[in-house]
Amino acid sequence: MSVEVEPKPVGRKPLQWFDVRGRRVGMWAYVAMRLSAIGLVLYLFLHLVILSQLAVGPSAWDGFVALAKSPAFLALDVILIVGILAHGLNGLRLTLVGLGIGVPRHKTMLWIGLVLTLALALLSALAIFAAEG
Ligand code: HEM
Questions:
Q1: How many angstroms does the Cα of residue 72 sit away from the middle of ligand 1?
Q2: What are the structural domain ranges in the chain?
Q3: Is this model's pTM higher than 0.90 or not?
């Protein structure tokens, strides 16, 4: 009688992509890209849910606007901007490299994207808190 042996599962564990310990900077960029992508998709749904308050009526919307002006909410706006910039600029880099443009300079482009993300996010934070603070 032959005994059937289940084949061992091959491949990586589900959340192994998240583990950047001892990995190079490109892997950090990959994880940042994926986390920002998940954050942006979640934000898109949250945005639609919040907009649906408009259908509830003026008082529901005014309540949300008051909440949106609180410092904690403004800080979330800044986090959103960081996510958009990091994802968008790294996405641009990946697109260029995928098209064969600037391949030897891909790491320089990564650092430029990071500096631009931090600089533009800082400017945005100053503008947001100056307007609403
Ligand atoms: C600013 C413009 C954007 C650019 C240039 C861009 C570019 C890219 C690129 C090149 C990838 C592939 C990354 C890879 O090969 O590892 C990607 C992945 C992805 N992006 Fe974007 N993206 C942008 C905005 C967005 C927005 C607004 C969302 C969500 C609402 C989004 C959601 C995603 C998702 C879900 C993935 C898959 C991530 C993964 O599986 O690891 N992206 N994006």
A1: 27
A2: 22-132
A3: no
What does the block give as tokens for 129?
């808190």
pLDDT in tens, 5-41: 777 777 778 888 888 999 999 999 999 999 999 999 9
Mutate to test the pocket of ligand 1, among 20, 81, 87, 95 (most ligand atoms within 8 A of CB): 87
Residue 1, number of CB atoms within 10 A of its CB: 2
Is domain 22-132 classified as CATH 1.20.1300.10?
Answer: yes
